[in-house]
Amino acid sequence: MRAVAIILGLAAAAVAVMYFVMPAGSLPGFFPGFEAGSDHVHMKHAIAAAGAAVVLFAIGWFAGRARA
Question: Does 67 have pLDDT greater than 70?
Fold first, then answer.
């Protein structure tokens, strides 16, 4: 469970970075928010992906704690 949460957290963090730095026209076609030729940056998508990464890292951290 811990490894899966951390891997998904890393993927969500990578997606968040892509949304922050790339305009909608430069995103891969399978990303939500792709608009050919658009210079708009999807900040809400980026914040949501960053939030998901934080939650997944927290799940990985709590899942890996030793139980007494």
Answer: no
Give the tens place of pLDDT for each residue, 1-54: 889 999 999 999 999 999 999 888 888 878 887 778 777 888 888 999 999 999
Contact 67, 16 (CB under 8 A): no
Report which DSSP code applies to 34.
-
Distance CA 48, CA 4 (A): 19
Say if CB 6 and CB 18 are below 8 A apart: no
Q: Is 62 helix (H, G, I), strand (E, B) or coil?
A: helix
For 58, residues 6+ apart whose C-beta sits below 8 A from its C-beta are: none
